[in-house]
Amino acid sequence: MNESAIRFEVTAQDGTARAGVLETRHGTIETPVFMPVGTLGTVKGVRFEALESAELDARIILGNTYHLLLRPGVEIIRSCGGLHRFISWPRALLTDSGGFQVWSLGALRRIAEEGVEFRSHIDGTLHFLSPEVSMEVQATLGSDIVMVFDECAPGQAAHEESQRSMERTARWAARSRARFDELQRQGMDTGGTAERVGVSGAQALFGIVQGATHLDLRRESLERTVEIGFDGYALGGLSVGEEDHVMYDVVEDTAPLMPRDQPRYLMGVGTPENLLEAVARGIDMFDCVIPTRSGRTGQAWTSRGKLNIKNARWARDSRPLDESCECSVCRRHSRAYLRHLYITGEMLASVLLTHHNLAFFLDTMKRVRQSIRSGDFARFQQAFLEQISFGSE
Hints:
Number of helices: 15
CATH architecture of the largest domain: Alpha-Beta Barrel
Largest sheet: 8 strands, parallel
CATH class of the largest domain: Alpha Beta
């Protein structure tokens, strides 16, 4: 039996776009995959039953070390048997390390070689995160995929600043690897025993490539990260303010150099256009808050671009959000009704818009996978991007 924490296989390739299968102890994930973000142990505005339904069929969601460390706290999750049991989610989980969140705190945090001392954005209490602490928290959470603790430089950071940050990320990656391995040997993972053929009960650890927008630093970061050795590799520090074409240049230069037989993950990205452009450059995994956050702010993603349900033009419109969408929201409700719900402050508006947005993102990735397997990805991408640029009628 293969005792790897995960198993990944590229099953089809069309140009540099890849389709594959990622096996975890909590289920099989087809890639390219979009992972809904469940920062606090919940994907905002949608029940787990809907995520598990045939309509959405989300095979993996995210949790966040920083937020779960603050609330409800590690000891509560430990006492409840780990994050899967605490939230009653039987499918795969990936946990972010908290590095991006503490970086984004600005004046509330102080970064040193040992780690990051920061004040909670909730109540101002003092906390500390380091590679070792992050690995300990994620071991308690019991996620299928753990992310190393990294430092995220600003997207437009100068070369010297980006290099210092990249080098610290490399040192922290080695420390994350060492502590992670110790914890796995001690059996601290609470995720349970393996239920999947060929996959062990252990956790997988992904390395993160940094270097801002400097291609030489990205290559060096990748080399140093691969030298340490991980189960998968992520590109971090993108979609943090730089223009899309800059992000695409980094992905196009870096992704082909990443190990072919391991998952490639672009963190925190993005719009439907971003997803297809990154898939075309060889990326396998994505996450972003866009579909859920947009739903809560009255925005719907459709095959003809983004629709603002608050617009008065929809007040008497009996059409669905997207006439090409087969989700339950589009099959049942009109733009006029959804606008009424949103304008009157009904919470159902956010629930329905979020459901539709997730359905659109997840269905788009399903169609991407099908087009790669059929050798038709380039045509699909062109047609998709042309249609989405038309705008809602």
